[in-house]
Design brief:
Methane Monooxygenase Hydroxylase, Chain G, domain 1, mainly alpha
């Protein structure tokens, strides 16, 4: 591990950020899974509600640079297509 004061501070900061990012990624995975489960069960209202939550979380994660912006957009688009298929 580093000996310089600034490097020690950077290490502490990186640990905090890593923990925050892991929490965010886990929440994203759970909400995306909720959308997919609702789509599988063909429950349109539950799928749309879960999609709204997932879209919000993915957007926030992209704004905070937890995931890349295009990755967030791609995930939202794919979930939207899946929900639209069962809504027909």
């Amino acid at each position: 591990m580093a000996n310089h004061k600034s490097a020690l501070k950077r290490h502490r900061q990186s640990l905090k950020r890593r923990a925050r990012n892991r929490i965010s990624k886990t929440r994203i995975k759970n909400t995306v899974k909720a959308v997919r489960d609702a789509v599988e069960a063909k429950d349109v209202t539950k799928a749309q509600e879960a999609l709204t939550a997932a879209t919000s979380l993915l957007g926030k994660a992209a704004r905070k640079k937890v995931i890349h912006q295009r990755q967030a957009q791609r995930r939202v688009a794919r979930l939207q297509v899946a929900v639209n298929k069962i809504a027909e």
